[in-house]
Design a protein that fits this description.
Blueprint (H helix, E strand, L loop, with lengths): L1 H27 L1 E3 L15 E4 L7 E8 L2 E6 L4 E6 L4 E7 L6 E7 L2 E6 L4 E5 L7 E5 L9 E7 L4 E6 L12 E8 L4 E2 L5 E4 H10 L3 H9 L14 E4 L6 E5 L4 E5 L5 E6 L8 E6 L5 E5 L7 E5 L4
Antiparallel strand pairs: 1-19, 2-22, 3-4, 4-5, 5-6, 7-8, 8-9, 9-10, 11-12, 12-13, 13-14, 13-15, 16-17, 17-18, 18-19, 20-21, 21-22
Length: about 300
């Protein structure tokens, strides 16, 4: 009896030890600044996972629409898809322009804005009508900047445009990733970035946080034609409660959280087995987070996370 009891005690102790090791490992995957106490999502344990059908295999962006619906685009067709995550299916399609590389979508009041990778922004109206109306706005950004992220900042009534590629038309911001501001009131894009994410700072943080092997591997595999691949922005969204910016990088598999001043608050490593190719992010008003992944040889999906204040 004593031997059985001793064995049980050892097994319980082993379970607690393994759980502690797993938690410690996950902590190394998440860097938090001194003034950022806790990352408010169980990023490796989504509450829901919605698998998408073939027409959204190349899903490239998300926007909150209603309590049970999200708006999506893919990077091949000029179509806005309404995905009902309660029914787990696309319930409507809105064709707004010809096929192209569409990488961002954002709902603002009754209007929908769609971002193309060459810097052009489409304003789409009358989604409730059969014949929707679309207006294209050219900006000073182009295909070299590779604009991939579109978010909405209600504090300034502006769209945030994140560049995956070059941050500018010169080497002025070399080594950084840029996020520009498109004023909805003025209908124009800022000449200078509103936010700059320093890739060298990201590397230093990751190395400091016992994460150096990942950083070194990135540095060893940099292709000069692609630029620095430590972090390349693919989606951006403003948190409705904390007002922080969440910037997803499919290249680099990172989620970077900035405060409204642009300071890095957190860096989260996105595990490849969960995030095959994260290309979209959005929030519900209560802080619920949605992240979309392109199919990349399998089914695309949308992951849902509850906000833990």
């Amino acid at each position: 009896m004593t031997k059985i009891f001793h064995t049980l005690i050892c097994l319980v102790a082993l379970v607690f030890f393994l759980e502690a090791c797993a938690q410690k490992k996950d902590q190394k995957m998440i860097y938090l600044s001194e003034d950022y106490e806790k990352f408010p999502y169980d990023i490796y344990e989504p509450d829901k996972k919605y698998e998408l059908k073939d027409h959204l295999r190349e899903i490239s962006a998300l926007s909150y629409f209603t309590e049970h619906s999200l708006l999506c685009v893919n990077d091949e067709k000029g179509i806005i898809y309404k995905f009902n995550h309660k029914k787990k299916e696309v319930t409507k399609k809105y064709e707004f322009d010809k096929p192209g590389d569409y990488e961002g979508v954002e709902m603002v009041d009754s209007l929908v804005y769609v971002l193309r990778s060459d810097g052009r922004i489409f304003k789409v109206d009358h989604l409730k009508d059969k014949n929707i109306h679309s207006v294209k706005r050219t900006t000073h950004l182009n295909a070299g900047n590779d604009t991939e992220g579109l978010g909405y900042d209600p504090s300034t009534n502006s769209l945030l445009v994140a560049c995956k590629g070059s941050p500018a038309h010169s080497n002025k911001y070399r080594g950084k990733r840029a996020i520009y501001e498109f004023s909805i009131d003025k209908n124009e894009l800022s000449k200078e970035p509103k936010y700059l994410i320093d890739q060298d700072q990201i590397r230093k943080i990751l190395e400091f946080d016992a994460y150096s092997r990942f950083s070194v591997r990135l540095m060893e595999n940099i292709n000069p034609s692609q630029g620095d691949i430590t972090f390349q922005s693919s989606a951006v969204a403003v948190h409705p409660i904390t007002k922080n910016l969440y910037v997803v990088g499919s290249v680099g598999k990172l989620l970077v959280v900035l405060n409204p001043k642009g300071d890095i608050q957190a860096i989260v490593k996105l595990k490849r087995k969960i995030f095959r190719q994260p290309e979209g992010i959005c929030f519900a008003p209560d802080g619920t987070m949605f992240i979309s992944n392109e199919g990349k040889g399998s089914k695309a999906n949308i992951l849902k996370y509850s906000f833990k204040q």
